Amino acid sequence: MSTLPVYRWRLAPEGLATFRQLRALGLRPAGQPVVAQLERSRRRREPLIAFLYRIDLARPVRPMTPARWAALERANTARRICPTCGRDAGYRIPPSLGMCVTCADAPQLAA
After folding, report:
1. Strands, E, within 4-103: which ranges?
2. Is 63 strand, coil or helix?
């Protein structure tokens, strides 16, 4: 079993990039394996870790088609509908509550 090479923050070699850096370049990893790891140390906590991919093997990001835009719009709309009262909350409902803030506060107001 081989281990990944680990580089310190800002010391990664040329030709490697994180997922976010690839996106900024308009690229995606395209199924390639992770080739290295980047670590940023933090005080009193475990280090932040980012995986590095080869830029030369990355492919362009697939363009959004009208059907994909429509599916994304439907998914975002579904996240705004409260399952308790059925109204559009006007914001994305937090998964921690599972319902709009008005429905979550209703039992506290009744007491």
Report:
1. 6-8, 16-17, 27-28, 36-42, 45-54, 59-60
2. coil
Q: In this predicted structure, what is the pLDDT of residue 109? A: 60
Q: pLDDT at residue 111 above 70? A: no
What is the spatial distance between Cα 30 and Cα 9, in angstroms, rounded to a whole number?
24
Residues 6+ positions from 79 with CB-CB distance below 8 Å: 92, 93
73 vs 100: CA distance, rounded Å: 19
Q: What is the mean pLDDT of residues 41-61?
A: 94
Q: For the whole prediction, is pTM greater than 0.70?
A: no
Residues with Cβ within 8 Å of 32's Cβ and at least 6 positions away in sequence, in order, are 53, 54, 57, 58
Task: Centre a 10 Å sphere on the Cβ of residue 100 and count the other Cβ atoms it contains.
Answer: 23
User: Is 7:36 a contact under the CB 8 Å cutoff?
Assistant: yes
Pairwise CA distance, residues 107 & 111, whole Å: 6
